[in-house]
Structures
1.
Amino acid sequence: MTEKTTDTGVVTALDVDAVVIGTGFAGLYALHKLRNDLGLSVHAFDNADGVGGTWYWNRYPGARSDTEVTAYCYSFDRELFDEWKWTAKYPRQSEVLAYLNHFADRYDLRRSITFGTTVDSATFNEATNRWELLTDRGERVTAQFIIEGVGLLSSTNFPKFPGQDNFKGEIYHTARWPHDDVSFNGKRVGVIGTGSSGVQCIVEIAPEAAHLTVFQRSPQYVVPAQHGPRDPHTLERINEDYEGYWDSVLRSVTAFGFHESDVSAADVTPEEREAIFEKVWNGGGGFQFMFATFNDIGTSLDANNAATDFIRRKIKAAVTDPSVAEKLTPTELYAKRPICCDGYYETFNRGNVSLVDVKKHPLVEITENGIRSDDREYELDVIVFATGFDAVTGNYLKIDHRGRHGEELRKKWSHRPLTHLGLMTSGFPNLFMIFGPMGPFTNQPPAHEVQVDWAADAISYVRAKGLETIEPTQASEDGWVATCDEIAYQTLFPKVNSWINGANIPGKPITVMFYMAGMGNYMDQLQHAVDTDYEDFRVEGAPARV
Ligand code: N01
């Protein structure tokens, strides 16, 4: 590593083996793996002022993981797993953030991270086979490898309504929540959006606010998370066979750590089906409703209809005012990323909560005093945008990547993102994207570890051979994209608009952005690359240098 600094100690130029961008789950592990295990010189950048990635930014009231902690953590360090005592089944944002800070300290990672700094561009120099990066603070960095853990759900979708700047109250976005406490006490609050972020904050804000108005564009299927203490039986099972447990997580479809159903909804009687839905709704809840009841809710129309019929009846039973229940009831398929939250529908029984159907009465403008729809004005003190993210590609495209022959990633991906294995894109050598487009549609932390390990192996392979670059061939990338399309169109997910296919952002291409054949099959694909000596990749040495 070489480094140049100014008189005041600001690093202006840095040459390292690898740059890591982002210090959430993926970036922290990448920094540890490459620096501490592989012995490379590595430097990381994060535009936040601390580690944590999504858990640094998403501090909104009610923010917590809806994956059980036993699969929402690192697995490679058994001691860390045993030592860290999670307080509940689903940890709050502050607890996940504390865990990631502990991870950074445990592996002494902070000395290799520059915070508060955005990487603006990354240009591949074909004469040197190195990437040249520029940050918004003027640092110039060169690196042979880049690992980007920039976040699947990080770049915010913050729509701007006419008149927004005139609002005299407070405006927040769930994914850019301030670090200071926000009080809703005695205030009239409006929440725009009812995805995972919206439902969590709606449930939490309602008891505190004087009045809460929920602006709903699409009603959602919300399954109770069945939050509670950690399940001692799960912990016992893990402790009995730690390796076996993680192997089963990685061999499963979703990597959530629970037992997935292998039974079709068509293979049981209607009475049995009802009993299974009821048991999981009241038992494990959350993601288990989609994946532990039957194995075809995401693929069979009949199975999906059975699930939506069940949830619709639950909404009707939970909400006392039938007209509110009707507004809250979705008519589309259950084929978005599942939303898991306790007490959501019941919140609308409170006297201080009202629901506005934004499709029926579109929001026209934000005024000095609140929000005006096409039929009336809602006076508010606080507006919360729970409007989500420019998901999957958003943060990748913020960086101006230029690959071989000056090719721009933004141009290459203008019609749709293109990768091989969700990890690399042809023409952009030595650039590894953790959870890049067309990666697995699964719980993230276990998949992050697998992808970082795969990248580390690829880097070691290149170096051991005395070579310099690795990138997928065009043919392998075309094949992967076709495979992802073929699999996705066998599921119901492309039939429903959401961030999963880019439909939530006006003007964004609506396309397949995930490998939907499950974690186990994805593991096989990664292993195939290694077993075949990276036959789907161009692995090359130094260019002729004069
Ligand atoms: O975002 P979303 P999110 N006017 O896109 C509405 C993860 N996550 O932040 O459905 C009015 O799901 C939009 O309406 P519609 C998780 O993977 C995890 O909630 O597009 N409304 C929708 O209701 C999740 O899936 C956790 O019609 C507008 C909402 O805003 C992903 O992040 C917690 C609008 C956006 O929902 C994204 O969740 C939180 C407009 N102009 C997030 N624009 C946990 O682990 C958008 N909407 C628990």
Note: The chain has a mean pLDDT of 96.
2.
Amino acid sequence: MPSHKIDLSDSFEKIPVKIFPTPKDGSRFVAEQIATLIKEKQKKGEKCILGLATGSTPISLYEELVRMHKEDGLSFKNVISFNLDEYYPLEKEALQSYWSFMHRHLFNHIDIDPSNIHMPNGELPKDDIKKHCQEYDQLIDSVGGIDLQVLGIGNNGHIGFNEPGSSIFSKTRLTSLDNTTRIANAYEFQNISQVPRMAITMGIGTILKAKKILLMAWGMKAPIVAKSVEGNVTEQVPASILQQHNDCLFVVDDVAAGELTRIKSPWLTGECEWTPKMIKRAVVQMALKTNKPVLSLTIHDYNENGLADFIVEKGEAYEINLQVFYMLRDSITGWPGGKPGAVIPAHPERSEPHPKRCIIFSPHPDDDIISMGGTFMRLHDQGHDVHIAYQTSGNIAVTDEFVTRFMDFAVGFEEQFGIDNHKSREVLADAGRFLSNKKKNQVDPAEIRSIKGLIRRCEAKATCRYVGLTDDKCHFMNLPFYETGMVEKKPMSEEDIQITMKLLREIKPQQVFCAGDLADPHGTHKVCLDIVYESMKRLKAAGESWVKDCWVWLYKGAWQEWDIADIEMAIPMSPDQVMKKRFGIFIHQSQKDMVPFQGSDSREFWQRAEDRNAHTANLYAVLGLTRYAAMEAFVRWHY
Ligand code: F6R
């Protein structure tokens, strides 16, 4: 197989990185590498020793391998596999065990000989683990070592469960999980307290012995990818140690590549095409780095920050400063639906038509208010016909306690008004029985899921009423891809697209907002976005006349904000609007305090929203624009 060293594109990157448009493309590449190796070994009558990983990253890789087995006849008969890690203690059969994961996603669907599957055993008594780990490493050595090791990467840089501080010489062993890892993986369990505190993992030394390593990273991993690839080798960032391996390749998607110097600041790595967007990015980065307003940057700053060539090409620093200042200024508007009757050529939105029909797509029933509550309120207050489309039921993120609380209310309500509550009592009793015997991480029956969905629906409706919308403007799409009852969702289906196209056709919006958030820990936002993209593309291809006049704006979900240089529309908020938004978020009571799937951020949603909106406003102020209390930000999607 060819070495990937030739892909080393510049001196900033100390590990070769191959960038693909999407995780699917990257996964296909890795699957092809694996398939080629398996077939080469088959031809020689040899075994192929694979090191495998779990987690959200390799799911699409395993999908592709299963496809290759079923459709292209790829056989795994000569494969011997070793998995990286397993939680401890945890029974094999538990839904969250990596043993279950691997069987669910790969082993059950291919022809690998079960006796060739090796995974650390999370069920052993503690006293037996040391021996088990030694035997695991010996077994790897005895079959000739790992030919190809697949890795993911944790946000803290861990590989396998080798957390920061793990030794470069570490072998397979029992280790304790970093709290950030437990929080990040809480989505696999019901809540953080159920995530095991320990795991058995191959050591860094074990991993480095693999002949070839492919590390995959998608989406939100951009900062740690850049740190591992461009930073110093340090045990504090375990993946950086891979710089010392002679055949390691990082396979990343566009988003995860976003913090690499060649992507983020390409002018530092050589040739760069100076589009207005790139100029804005370079100047904004320089202003933030030097902590100077854009209009105060001097030729000296340009020279000091790797932009000397640019100045030679473009001339006056002050002219460039002005150009960028105007771009930033023109992105700010209090009129997200356009300012009626005004002719402002550089305004982010069109003045006409006014009012506009708008759809805000909200992946979960609270993303609308959390991520763009201020804009939502402005759109309504400025007379637009605002519709909210809640894409998923969000039923998985409601605690069991809420179910009994609300069922109890339903029974009491009927009793109070003399309504026959025979049925609701029965449902309450059933729910109570199920919940009191519910096993750790057991999937809720449809009835309970529907009650959880109803709770979220009522909260969403209450928020819309709070903003001033009538109930007929709230659309609950209940997209089927979400309805698994588990954190893992189905992929986008034709039905999801048809439901979305139907709604779009009904409303014929002139403005659409959707979550352009690729960093959603469970991937729901990403699927929701893909569904809207696909629906809009199909409607355009079908020649629906309204589509050409419909602008699509992307907001980020609760986890992140757009890069300041990429923002095309920034909606300021007054302190009163910030408070009004906060109370709107409070209406989502089932999402207050510790929700079941919190992600790695322990702040409540309203705090995250406020911090983020204040931060955006602050960045604009630092760059020399007016200081607002808070700002929501959008990027336009051209399709
Ligand atoms: C999994 C493993 C971990 C993951 C890492 C990223 O076997 O060893 O290192 O690769 O935690 O997890 P995801 O892919 O869920 O982001």
Note: The radius of gyration is 27 Å.
